[in-house]
Amino acid sequence: MFCFQCQETAGCTGCTKFGVCGKSPDLARMQDLLIYITKGLSEVTTKLRNEGKLVSGDVNNLITLNLFTTITNANFDDKIFYDRVKMTLQVKRSLIEQVENRGCLSETAIWDVDLSKDLDIQLDQKSTTVGILTTKDEDIRSLRELIIYGLKGMSAYMKHANALGFDNENINAFMQDTLSKTLENLSVDELVALTLETGKVGVDGMALLDEANTTTYGHPEVTSVSIGVRNNPAILVSGHDLKDLEQLLKQTQGTGVDVYTHSEMLPAHYYPAFKKYDNFVGNYGNAWWKQKEEFESFNGPILMTTNCIVPPKDTYKDRMYTTGAAGYVGCTHIDEESGEEKDFSQIIEHAKKCTPPMEIETGEIIGGFAHNQVLALADKVVDAVKTGAIKKFFVMAGCDGRAKSRNYYTDFAKALPKDTVILTAGCAKYKYNKLNLGDIGGIPRVLDAGQCNDSYSLALIALKLKEVFELQDINELPIAFNIAWYEQKAVIVLLSLLYLGVKNIHLGPTLPAFLSPNVTKVLVENFGIGGITNVEDDIKMFLGE
Ligand code: FS2
Ligand code: SF4
Description:
With 545 residues, this protein is α/β, with parallel strands linked by helices. The protein is 44% helix and 10% strand.
């Protein structure tokens, strides 16, 4: 196997024996094959569009879900990948029939199994020949993978928007065209241009999800969220899918079962639509990587709606359920009945037999500072900047992770001068959202916009400030970007910020292993991308001291 798509990749170079995340070599090669077949299908759908034919929403959704399923920590169930590969081949087979100019299709687009022979054996054989390292040139490989990881991140956001009935043909067409272009012999310059274009469409994807979320559930508003527990049996919901949460909340009404959020589901509390459920108690625990201890002490069933899954301990594996793109062998998967609500009754009945969660924390945390709420406070914020009460904003969005080196972000938040404000989104917030860093004239020093996709809000806030202060360039604002990354959704956030013209973004705790030295050089020279060093020196650097 060879996988280097996340920040925790072995030795900062690549997982070759077993994934640090728990991905086995067999799972890795089936994920490689699924990406390969999906590229082939994308070439076919792109050809069909070019010939003026329509591509159905089902095919778009299949491609989106295939990408999402291969995101770090989303799905560890080998069988799901065999099934998805077979389903994708079947769809590709039928669509190829509709292509007029079939002679120009690539080897990847036309590759298929022999239906008269054992399918799994053929898939196993093929899967060992389609990995990342088949691209020999390290710069081309680096750019292709950078683009593919951006598309994987985008697919997550599209999937959530799709679940709420929002879609966009231009975004689907772009994603598929771009996937298919990673099969072509594009030059480094062409791939760099495609990378930026991916960032542009990344902004569109995040805007679509923002529209889907806020239209369906209202605009996030300032909210205090309890981190303690009540004395009822309960279900813990993790991941990012608000639709799943909504369905679970509806189905738990009157059952005596409470619902808590975990990790990236915390921002659900900020939406007005969820406030009417009095069994929606609060947030339990911290970022994804602490789940082994926290799922144990929760006592009740856990529903994983997306990543990030840590391979569960046997002590609570039977209490862990998955749905959507998430999956784990041995955990019950709740399927979607087409066009109908998901049926969570099994989890609810399970919860009733469990003891209430064990209290691990008490108190409250505050959040809900997405664009609409911050813009409602704009006068206050602008005044604070004008009077010098706020000297600088630090965008510290992104992901949390296991590495000890990430304590840098806690230390960094603690060491920031008191006249600075942290703008955060994503699970990175758990490194400093319980530090009680105080406020500046009533504005909390940590403003949480929401999930990783709500980084879009942070970009909108920056653009608004640029307008208010009548600046030509977003980089003239008193905003620094010190972003923590882990998986591929952070990649699309990064590419989107680059597209919006943000310079001097610092990425940590390490730069991506998939960036070759030459590609890193391009990013440093054109965008001022940098890594992190130590808290003291970095704060001086950011403050221009
Ligand atoms: Fe955190 Fe994991 Fe949000 Fe990432 S819970 S690292 O999926 O997308 O952020
Ligand atoms: Fe390794 Fe990350 Fe890939 Fe898992 S997702 S195999 S940890 S690089």
